[in-house]
Amino acid sequence: MPGRRVYLETFGCQMNELDSELVAGQLASLGYQFTPRVAEADVVLYNTCSVREQAEQKVWSRLGELRESKSDKPEMVVGVLGCMAERDGTDLMDRMPVVDVMCGPAELDKLPLLIDNAVRTRQSLVTDDPNAATKSVKSAALQGSASRRSGTLAAAGDSLEYLDLSRSVSPIDPAGSLNKSAYVRITRGCNKFCTYCVVPFTRGAEIHRPPAHIIDEVKRLADQGVTEITLLGQTVNHYRFEHDSALVSNGITQPQKGQAFKGGHRRDPLAGSNVTTFADLLYQLHENAPSVQRLRFVTSYPRDFGDDVLEVMRDCPRLCRYLHVPAQTGSDRMLKKMNRGYTVSEYNEFIDRARHYLHQPEIGRPLMISGDIIVGFPTETNEDFDKTVELLERTRYKSCFIFKYSPRPGTVAYDKIPDDVPNAVKRERNNALLAVQSRISDEISREQVGNEFDIMIEGPSQHAIKASGLSTKKANNGVQLTIGGKSADEPDAVSVAAVLERTEAETVQFSGRTDGDQIVMFDAPTAKAADLAGQIRRVRITEGAGLSLFGELV
Ligand code: SAH
Ligand code: SF4
Ligand code: F3S
Question: Cα separation of 435 and 431, whole Å?
Answer without folding.
Answer: 6
